[in-house]
Amino acid sequence: MDSLTTALLSVREEGELLSLREFVRETAESLDASDLIFRKVRFDRCLFTSCDLSGAAFYNCAFENCGFTGCRFSGSFWKDTLLTSCKAEGGDFRKARFKDCALTGLRLRYANFNGALWERCAWTECDLTESSCQELRVVKTAFEKMDLTGADLFRAALKGADLSGCVLDGVSLSASCQELRGARIHASQAAVVARILGIEVST
Q: N or C: where does the chain have the smaller number of CB atoms within 10 Å of the terminal CB?
């Protein structure tokens, strides 16, 4: 049994807080880490498979080159946490809250962010192709080179967001495109909105 699995089992049995630890090239499979608190924990090239992290809280943590397969993060809370070059395709992040986090180079295709909150975060070069982001709330969050191809943004609150550097091809919006009201897009992206509104754009 590796140290990550041992640590999670120990925290589950003896308390709810895991702090000031570092895990490198560790694995965790089918573990219940729901509602646990992680503080100043660093994960480097770790692999999580079918783990339940719903309701877990991460404060000042770092995830680098980690993989999450079949994991659940619904209702989780992320604060001042760094996620770099991680993969969580199909991950369940429903109603998860991210505050003051930096997310770079993440692969989150088909992930579920329905009802989630992104507040004062920085998303850079992340792939959210065909993700579900219904009723997502975005507050003072920066986006750079985000791929939102085919994402479901129905009823997402994007007012104030600068989406001009994002790929918006095939996104799902309401008939009125109210999700983009107050958001900033590039002139070249206007055709995407026009198609949703049923407007033909000549070139």
A: C
> pTM for the complete prediction?
0.91
Residue in the structure block whose two tokens are 């033909």: 200
Alpha carbons within 13 A on the beta-carbon side of 20: 0
Residue where the block lists tokens 């498979």: 49
Residue where the block lists tokens 């924990």: 41
Pure H helices in 1-148: 3-14
Dist CA 10 CA 13 (whole Å): 5
200, β-bridge pairs: none
| Token duo for residue 114 | 């329905």
**Cβ neighbours for 19, distance < 8 A, ≥ 6 positions apart:** 38, 39, 40, 41
Question: What residues contact 202, with CB distance under 8 A and at least 6 apart?
Answer: none
pLDDT digits (tens, 9 = 90+) for 66-118: 999 999 999 999 999 999 999 999 999 999 999 999 999 999 999 999 999 99
Rounded to whole angstroms, how far apart are CA atoms 97 and 58? 10
**C-alpha atoms less than 13 angstroms from C-alpha of 2 in its C-beta half-sphere:** 13
DSSP alpha helices (H): ranges in the chain? 3-14, 190-196
